[in-house]
Amino acid sequence: MLASLESKVIVVTGAGQGIGRALCQHLAAAGAKVIALSKSVEKLEELKDICSTVETIPVDLRNWQNTRDILSKLPQIDGLVNNAGVAIIKPFTELTEQDFDDTFDINIKAVFNVTQTLLPKLKKGSSVVMTSSLAASRSFHGHAVYSATKAAVDSLTRSLALELGPKQIRVNSVNPTVVLTQMGRENWSEEEKSGPLLAHIPLNRFCEVQEVVDGIVYLLSSNSSFVNGHQLNLEGGYSVS
């Protein structure tokens, strides 16, 4: 799997922390040329200190035209990981227009814009991977806007798999439950909150960051060469409980 990524050029959004940062490190260790995008210059500098071979580009994906201008200068690529995302978790009655706009702007509008802009640069045999969520297909308290955006991501994934398949470009997503990033550990540390969800997961634990990275790497690699339009649920058996 790792050998098939050597010398491949892969763009990762949301690369400053969490899943994105871990993925960039993993891909670089596999010999890929990684182009890391994040709105945080500081986070990109930290990534560069950890992994000097990664090319870092600061960009605010909420800015449609600036994003297109920056991405238009990139070289031909072999893979794209639309990982950038935000999660505003509130009861439906407390969600504001700003919450709605912020979530949709990053979680789906930016995904659409980045993918459309980079499409001419995707080589034959390329792979596009979306970081989605189990919340795209399951309902969780306080996730109304977040779930709506991830359902849109899954729908876009299937549509692009159909449209881009004839160009030999595959499009898939990874759909985890709670992922134990630093933020995930902080948000789900209380047993009162985590207990009811864990009770529906046969493995009785949440998803580790590396497990998401492994899923993305699989979908980027030639090992998944006949996988297209698929949502890879990383949920420890939640769906069968």
From TrEMBL:
User: Which biological processes are named by the entry's GO terms?
Assistant: glucose metabolic process; lipid metabolic process; xylulose metabolic process
What molecular functions are annotated in GO for this chain?
A: carbonyl reductase (NADPH) activity; L-xylulose reductase (NADPH) activity
What are the alphabetically sorted keywords of the record?
NADP, Oxidoreductase
- Classification via Gene3D superfamilies: NAD(P)-binding Rossmann-like Domain
Pfam families, alphabetized? adh_short_C2 (PF13561)
Q: Where is the Ketoreductase domain?
A: 8-191
InterPro entries per UniProt:
KR_dom, L-xylulose/Carbonyl_redctase, NAD(P)-bd_dom_sf, Sc_DH/Rdtase_CS, SDR_fam
Q: Which family does it belong to?
A: Belongs to the short-chain dehydrogenases/reductases (SDR) family.
Subunit composition and interactions: Homotetramer.
Protein's name in the database? L-xylulose reductase
Write down the species. Bactrocera dorsalis
What are the leading ranks of the lineage?
Eukaryota, Metazoa, Ecdysozoa, Arthropoda, Hexapoda
